[in-house]
Specification:
Pfam families: Aminotran_1_2. By secondary structure, the protein is α/β, with parallel strands linked by helices. It is about 45% helix and about 15% strand. Strand 7, helix 8 and strand 8 form a beta-alpha-beta unit. The chain is globular, with a radius of gyration of 21 Å. Bound molecules: 4'-deoxy-4'-aminopyridoxal-5'-phosphate. 4'-deoxy-4'-aminopyridoxal-5'-phosphate (PMP) binds next to helix 5.
């Protein structure tokens, strides 16, 4: 008799499980459109030049590997805060933002969830329908009841804004609302500036707690353009949570570099919030790792490296848009004329509108791996596999 006899075998993670199936697939023409990773024209994970340069500089002047503070590197925190709130923003000068370095965007969400659970344990968390799979799991695991608000409307190939606002309006005060700041995962549909204003008004009226998740800054319209949502929330005067990630924008997935900022009404509140965030971190992993944050800090604070990064990020963004147009064109050439909406979606993902059966057929008949819900990572296409993917989609649609 072992204690572990009672341990049930958990199902594989829906996304990472797809990758396992992909790796095991022997067909050479297979394509992994499951996981949200940007691949270059050769189907390879890029190492950005700015990161390579920063890495060389760090290697030329090696530092001892001491512990960082619980809340991370001060230089990193300053660099992130300037990036997401703007250099010298009033809210920073007023001391109203508590920022901690986190283990990627996921770590930021979890530290934020743990703090929220401590200060408002009976709150419900609302996520978009659909949302990134891990939102529900993460907030559930943190002890919350998780419900969803209406978001994607298949008939519109867009957002059911009336449904979304109605669901927010009927939420209890204190409800946590997780909002994708840009490049909504999995649908690729973002709110317009006017719709953001409506959401902000509703959040204010109903006294909800917004939690902005910004994992793809720079992949929509640009770094500043995508970050404008944060500025809107600051302008509104609301208190809110903000998680950010450099996994995608720096292609630093495995380094786990992110941040959590909590914007409060006063510097005094921010100090108290920071003290509690530090306890959440200290009792989980004590303090964050050094290397990824050092790379990001080096790039963001050096004029030439920063310009290089902005260009490389723009190139990734533009290439994804080109791939979207390329896929739509290739589908049209094969007689599939009703999927033009893919070109207008934002970020790495496309909600293709394909059914579960069609997605399974893509996997079993063609070795093309997307989620059952029809999500495909457009950022994993290239000129070498695009025609094959278009052939397969046309075949499963016929
Ligand atoms: N939020 C969303 C919406 C995401 O898509 C992702 C990454 N897939 C994350 C958070 C987490 O990012 P990270 O890999 O930095 O933990």
């Amino acid at each position: 008799m072992s204690l572990f006899d009672r341990v049930e075998l958990a199902p594989a993670d829906p996304i990472l499980g797809l990758t396992e199936a992909f790796v095991a697939d022997p067909r050479p023409e297979k394509v992994n459109l499951g996981v949200g990773v940007y691949l270059d024209e050769n189907g390879k994970l890029p190492l950005l030049d700015c990161v390579r340069d920063a890495e060389s500089r760090l290697a030329a002047d090696p530092k001892p590997k001491g512990y960082l503070g619980i809340d991370g590197s001060p230089a990193y925190r300053d660099a992130v805060r300037s990036l997401v709130f703007g250099d010298g923003a009033d809210v920073l000068a007023d001391g109203r933002v508590a920022t901690v370095q986190t283990l990627g965007g996921t770590g930021a969400l979890k530290v934020g969830a743990d703090l929220l659970r401590q200060i408002n344990p009976s709150a419900t968390v609302l996520i978009s329908n659909p949302s990134w799979e891990n939102h529900r799991a993460l907030f559930t695991r943190a002890g919350f009841r998780v419900d969803s608000y209406r978001y994607y409307e298949p008939a519109l190939h867009g957002i059911d804004i009336d449904g979304m606002l109605a669901d927010l309006r009927s939420a209890d005060a204190g409800t946590v609302v997780v909002l994708h700041a840009c490049c909504h995962n999995p649908t690729g549909y973002d709110l317009t500036p006017e719709q953001w204003d409506q959401v902000i008004e509703t959040v204010r009226d109903r006294e909800l707690m917004p939690f902005l998740d910004m994992a793809y800054q720079g992949f929509g319209f640009g770094i500043e353009e995508d970050g404008a949502v944060v500025a809107r929330f600051i302008e509104s005067g609301l208190e809110f949570f903000l998680s950010t990630s450099f996994s995608k924008s720096f292609s630093l997935y495995g380094e786990r570099v992110g941040s959590l900022s909590v914007v409060s009404e006063s510097a005094d509140a921010a100090r108290r919030v920071l003290s509690q965030l530090k306890i959440c971190i200290r009792t989980n992993y004590s303090n964050p790792p050094t290397h990824g944050a050092a790379l990001v800090t080096a790039v963001l604070t050096d004029g030439a490296l920063r310009r290089g990064w902005e260009q490389e990020l723009a190139a990734m963004r533009d290439r994804i848009k080109q791939l979207r147009r390329g896929l739509v064109g290739a589908l049209e050439a094969r007689g599939v004329t009703d999927m033009g909406f893919i070109a207008g979606q934002l970020g790495m993902f496309s909600y293709s509108g394909l059914t579960k059966q069609q997605m399974i057929a893509l996997r079993t008949d063609y070795g093309i791996y997307g989620t059952d819900a029809g999500r495909m990572c457009v950022a994993a296409l290239n000129t070498g596999n695009l025609g094959y993917v278009a052939d397969a989609i046309a075949a499963v649609r016929s």
